[in-house]
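Support request, priority: normal
Reporter: lab tech (M.K.)
Component: structure prediction queue

Hi team, I submitted a job for Probable DNA 3'-5' helicase RecG from Actinoplanes hulinensis yesterday, and the status page still shows it as pending. I've pasted the exact input below so you can check whether something in the sequence is tripping the parser. The sequence length should be 726 residues. Please let me know if I need to resubmit or if it's stuck on your end.
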Amino acid sequence: MTTTDTPLTKVLGAKTAKALEQHLELYTAGDLIYHFPRRYDERGEHTDLRSLKVDEQVTLLAQVQGINVKPMRQRRGNMLEVTIGDGSGATLTCTFFNQAWRERELRKGVWGLFAGKVTEFRGKRQLNGPAYQLLSADATQDDAAAEIEEFAGALIPVYPAAQAVPTWVIAKCVRTLLDTFEPPPDPMPAEVRVKRNLTGIGTALREIHRPSSEEALYRAKHRLKWDEAFAVQLTLVQRRARAAAAPGTARPRAEAGLLERFDAGLPYELTEGQREVGEEIAADLSRPHPMHRLLQGEVGSGKTLVSVRAMLQVVDAGGQAALLAPTEVLATQHFRGISAQLGALGRAGELDGDPEGTRLTLVTGSLGAAARRAALAEVADGRAGIVVGTHALLYEGVDFKDLGLVVVDEQHRFGVEQRDALRAKAARPPHVLVMTATPIPRTVAMTVYGDLETSILSQLPRGRSPIASHVVPGDNQAYVNRTWQRIKEEVRAGHQAYVVCPRIGEGPEDEESPPKDAEPARRPPLAVTEVLPLLREQYLHGLRIDMLHGKMPPDEKDAVMRRFAAGDLDVLVATTVIEVGVDVPNSTVMLILDADRFGVSQLHQLRGRVGRGSAPGICLLHSEAAEGSAARERLDAVASTTDGFKLSEIDLEQRREGDVLGASQSGKHSHLRLLSLLRDEKLIKEARAEASALIGDDPDLSRYPALAASVAALVDEDRAEYLEKG
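Reply from support: The job had stalled in the queue. We restarted it manually and it finished. Here are the results:
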């Protein structure tokens, strides 16, 4: 019998096993049995050939409609042209050179699977020398039926394949495997299987490869999705339970402390959301176990103020707090903003400081030697109650006296090792507050951040103005001219503007290029260093303009931001370095050039830099993307709503869910293949509920060894670490 651990060399032979190993990274029977079809063709619903694109690698189910053998003009020999169709009216030509013998098997009327790259010659689409597998028209009369039995049913599996290992070769290997395969004992607890009406694992694995009916295929997929969701949720619930039981240091609120005095001095009222989230965090900090909380908040919802109040509570309790920011611009911005909020409370030891207050210290890589020594001394001896910094906080030599709270801003900008390095600087596990202004769909939060308690700030503070967004078609000169005019109008009204470019301009690639989910354009993306002189000399001549990007020296970046914040610049031409944290209330208009080069969430983040004061904000999305294209539809969606959670769903649709689940983070083969974070929300919620109940009753799954082993196989240790650290 063949088990999941059996090497494929023992099942398929050395040559075939080597091909599967080299081209698809399949080594064992378990790897192959979990290599699921990516779709199923149906005899009665054939692939629409009209949807094919040139240069696309395809596998088609089609019928031979015509055959023609003719001599080649430029050289000796002949060419076989086989016309295939799918019943939709569209056809495709398959060409074979000096292979006239194929005419005997590629007979008119025969159905087959054809695989190859779509090319175009003289206006006609074709496949040059495609691989193919013919299907038996009548299994009872065809002696070759056994060879192609896999394709004789109504549902034909099409596998993720490679050029050297086409889908029908994989199907044949799976059929060979299934003849001797002994499924493992079902790891799903019987009570869960019965309650959720799940089919057995053995039946599910057989039916997903060789479905007897559409209903059987649905039940097989449903069961295997449950396995994936249940494994992830069990991992996260276990980790949350362990974190809740881990020893930590309670940091309760103090009466008449810094937090109370800070609140009393605020010039505005907290929003209801800020008060509620603040109470949740305060309760977490008061417990003798480390807090692990995710704070989601729309751009401008006041997350930083919530974090400052949490940090003051920890300082009141005798500890220190560290705020980790992804860039020097953002760290400096946070430092200035928190300094202004704390006032004398953050300048203890200075002439104008409050002797009962604390010290706020900035630690970045660009600090001079003397300033760095002074800052590190304040951190080490505990005088600095609140420390704001970049990756420099992680370096050796940065030592805290009593680190009680780590606040991570824009957590997705840090690697898991970096976040873990800061936590390791505490004597006991510190409380952790992770903040993001990128709204996260509920299922992603439940699946990727499921070991964190989640708080959401959706209410904007009073006085914040709405932001209107419009798409500016780059091929309409009248619209483009009106864009520059609109910026001038805002400046004449006493306001300021951002012009955002996808690239710095110092080379073909740079550190601040947008994510690769944006669609490619025909020309290079616009760059800051190229756009700046054009604005100064032509489009915005006469205005005070400067640039900001990540490759500038830190002191230059700081000087530019100070001038812009002080109102000494009218227009700032920048890259995505301004994406998060930059807060200049007088900025009312943003023009994003080549907006189709950016992802949905990034566009939403960028436009949050305007409308932060009392005047309405305007975001103009410039793009040459054609109307009706996917890129233009993405921009229209951003322009149509400021609901970040709605946009996050659109963003998720355009990303590979394997990346969200961490498969690309570990670089390993992932067994999380079927679960969709968009379509399977109900299933994920059910799996979460069952996982919570099971772990509550049996934290280590000691009564379910098969389930524990299954979880370990589906969520390996590297991926479990990724899920844990978020």
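The longest helix spans residues 214-245. The two ends are 41 Å apart (CA to CA). Let us know if anything else looks off. Ticket resolved.
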